[in-house]
C-alpha cells in the first residue's frame, strides 16, 4: 500500500489569531488515488490528482463556511 500524506498549511485560517493550532493531514494518496478526510463526513475521493483533491477540499470547506472564496 502506497500511502503519502500532504502536510497541512502552517498558517492561521480566516478569523483565527495567535498561535497556529495542531492540524491533521487531510489529503493523502493511496494506490495512486487521492483522498481527503473530514471530521464531519469521513473520507472523500478518490480523485485522480492532488490538484483535484485540493480543489474539492477547498470547495467542501467553502460550503461549510470554514474558508472564504478568494474573491469574497
Low-confidence segments, given as residue ranges, are none
Domains, number: 1
In total, how many beta strands? 4
Radius of gyration, rounded? 13 Å
- The strand line-up of the biggest sheet is 1-2-3-4
Give the amount of beta strand, in percent.
Answer: 25-35%
Shape: globular
- Oligomer classification: single chain
Instruction: Kindly state the percentage of residues in helix.
Output: 10-25%
The biggest sheet, with number of strands, parallel, antiparallel or mixed sense and barrel status, is: 4 strands, antiparallel
Mean pLDDT: 80
**Total number of helical segments?**
1
Q: What pattern of helices and strands is seen along the backbone? A: EEEEH
Q: What structural class is derived from the secondary structure elements?
A: alpha+beta
How far from one another are the termini? 40 Å
Q: What does this molecule look like?
A:
With 72 residues, this protein is of the alpha+beta class. It has one domain (3-64). It has one helix at 50-64, and strands spanning 3-5, 27-30, 33-38, 42-47. Strand 3 (33-38) and strand 4 form a beta hairpin. The protein is globular and about 40 Å long. It starts with a strand and ends in an 8-residue tail after the last helix. The mean pLDDT is 80.
